[in-house]
Amino acid sequence: MKNKFKLAAAVVMVIGFAASSALAAVQPVQLALVDPIQIFSAGTSITGLRLNLIYGRNANVKGLDLGLIGVADSSFSGVQYNSLANITKGNFSGCQIGFVNYAVNAKGLQLGFINYAESLNGLQIGLVNIIDRGGVLPVMPFINWSF
Fold it and tell me: In the prediction, which pLDDT does 15 show?
């Protein structure tokens, strides 16, 4: 009888922890001072609004990203408007507006002083525009594109 109770308690605890971690995987709002001083950990995905007082970092972000420096480790979809830097280490779709914009695979618009994309299906407007693969030219001043 004791063994069945222990087994049942263990199963309930495992299911409870799994459910809470699954629910915590995506959050609607993130507020970050600097990573790791932010409401949710860097591994959390954000769908909604992320405010980066200095530096915010999350796995995936969908929605609006505002602040000084914003980093998406995997993917970003929406508008990244961080005054110093927007960094997406994976797939980006939408608009990046900031002093420096970086995306690995970008679809959309990069508007800033320095824009960099490993591959781009879209437009870059800035002083230095770099498309590693597939651009009109690898480096162009003022405007660069690849469709």
Answer: 41
Residues sharing a CB contact under 8 Å with residue 60, sequence separation 6 or more, in sequence order: 45, 46, 72, 73, 74, 75, 76
* CA 131 – CA 134 distance, rounded (Å): 7
Q: Tell me the per-residue pLDDT of 12-28, one tens digit each, with 9 for 90 and over.
A: 343 444 334 445 589 99
pTM of the predicted structure, to 2 decimals: 0.83
Tokens of 6: 């222990």
Q: Return the CA Rg of the chain.
A: 20
Q: For 117, list phi and psi in degrees, rounded to 5.
A: -140, 135
Rounded Cα distance between 127 and 147, Å, is 20
Domain ranges of the chain: 26-146
- Residue 70, Cβ neighbours under 10 Å: how many? 29
Which is more confidently placed, 23 or 75? 75
